[in-house]
Amino acid sequence: MKRKLIGCIINDPESDYQNNIIDGLMRQCEKYDYNLAVFSPLVDVSHYDTVYTSGEFNILNLINFDLLDGVVVASEPLIRKEDKIFFNWIQKLLEEKCKKPVITLDVPMGDYDLVCVDDKSAFFQITSHVLDFHKRRNIYFLSGPEKFNISEIRIAGFIEKMKSEGIEVPEDHIFYGDFWYTSGGSLAQRIISEEIPMPEAVICANDQMAIGLQRALTESGIKIPDQILITGYDASQDAALNRITITSFLPDISGMAQEAINRIRRIIEPDKPVKSIEKFDKNNLFTGMSCGCQSDISHTIQCIEASIIRKKRDFNEAVFRFG
User: Fold this and answer.
1) Spatial separation of the C-alpha atoms in residues 253 and 22, rounded to whole Å
2) Beta-ladder partners of 285
3) Containing H/E element for 212?
4) CA-based R_g, the chain, Å
5) What's the rounded Cα separation, in Å, for the pair 257 and 148?
6) Which of 32, 85, 194, 307 is 20 to 30 A from 54, alpha carbon to alpha carbon?
């Protein structure tokens, strides 16, 4: 019997978020004896050379969707470019050429089925660390693009914790960015110029914005975390290896990708059993210097190993390890 073939559309596959998606897809495909085909431009959508980036994305025009049994789209990294040009282009490509089941991850794309990480609980926990452990109460939140589901869900986790402590969050304490370093840098400049008052802490909706904020504030002479405490999200290599390590949280990205494969299986093989997803530790808060805690050494070592050692698969291992 011919093995099912699942397609994955993703970009910049060596980044941490995308790496974890591929890990989850491969884990679950392996359980079902499915093949996985990854179609990927090798650059982030925010790459400075837009002509080169457009050329990279042209590889997606080569996909023969008729040969696939389902498609998973990593849609979140595609919204990091303000005009959403590549996000919109891929949506149009799918609508015109793909008749197979499509699952999108974290960010909705048209009417396609969506699987998300539990961001709300994660940001409730991050905010708890800032409020309960560090006793900071005047807190800004730097989120992703306005009106995107993941931006608003992450804000909701923050607000829920603040309100549980009897703290109202003014509208002007919520800021929107694009999940890229420049958003953090822009907020920093508004603080440095005294356009907005200096907060006690800034909770960022991802690590890149947290790093951009930290670097710009530090360069201006503002002390992190003494004057401003900063946290991120994704527990990326960038955060763990930053000169001032960033306190961050590791979401269950691999589990989200595994669930996407399960949803496709329910559609293409409705009579077959669906297998469970690996249990995830929901307390994956990794502390760093940016909040005044000691860096999580074991996490830092893992990130160093992953950044300098490109591992090949050991086919004798019972569990597949990607990256």
Assistant:
1) 9
2) 249
3) helix 207-219
4) 20
5) 20
6) 307
Dump pLDDT digits (tens) for 53-86: 999 999 999 999 999 999 999 999 998 777 789 9
* Contact in structure between 320 and 26 (CB atoms under 8 Å): yes
Give the integer Cα–Cα distance in Å for 181 and 178.
9
Neighbours of 131 (CB within 10 A): 18
Distance CA 175, CA 258 (A): 32
Sign of dihedral through CA atoms 77, 80, 86, 89? positive
Strand (E) or helix (H) holding 183 = helix 181-192
Residue 38 sits at φ, ψ, to 5 deg, of -105, 125
CA dist 51 and 144 (Å) reads 25
Task: For 250-280, write each residue's pLDDT tens digit.
Answer: 999 999 999 999 999 999 999 999 999 987 7
Place of tokens 């800004």: 140
Question: Collapsing DSSP states into helix, strand and coil, what is residue 51?
Answer: helix
- pTM, whole model, 2 decimals? 0.84
Q: What is the 3-state secondary structure (H, E, C) of 251-318?
A: CCHHHHHHHHHHHHHHHHCCCCCCCCCCCCCCCCEECCHHHCCCCCHHHHHHHHHHHHCCCCCCCCCC
Answer whether residue 307 shows pLDDT above 80: no
DSSP characters over 215-259: HHHHHTT--TTTT-EEE-SS--HHHHHSSSPPBEE---HHHHHHH
The pLDDT of residue 317 is 53
Task: Please check whether residue 208 is in contact with residue 184, taking contact to mean a CB–CB distance below 8 angstroms.
Answer: yes
Distances (CA, A) of 200 to 124, 173, 227: 18, 12, 6
